[in-house]
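[AMINO ACID CHAIN]
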Amino acid sequence: MPPGEATGETPAQMKKRADDLRACARQARLLAQRLGPYLDSPAKQAQQSEPAIWKGPYATSATAQISDRQGKLSRMASALMSDAGRWEAEARRLDEQAADEDKKKNKDGG
């Protein structure tokens, strides 16, 4: 939701959603930290040339596939970290919006 747009949520609901977003961001970061390097060791072993642990057309094909998947996992982890950053930013925005709503409520005597 764009900043400044009314959500129809109470400040407590906004704070709860902010807490949920922060929890999701923490979990996403933990997953990304494990996901990114998951295939690093197998890819390094498969690409080893001195001494080569395997040779032939299947080895070449499988090594390329492992390397491709390693890159995809790394990009997925990076995207997940970016998402977590956006969720944290949204949580901060929600906290600020909730604080503003609380101030308005207290100012108006509500």
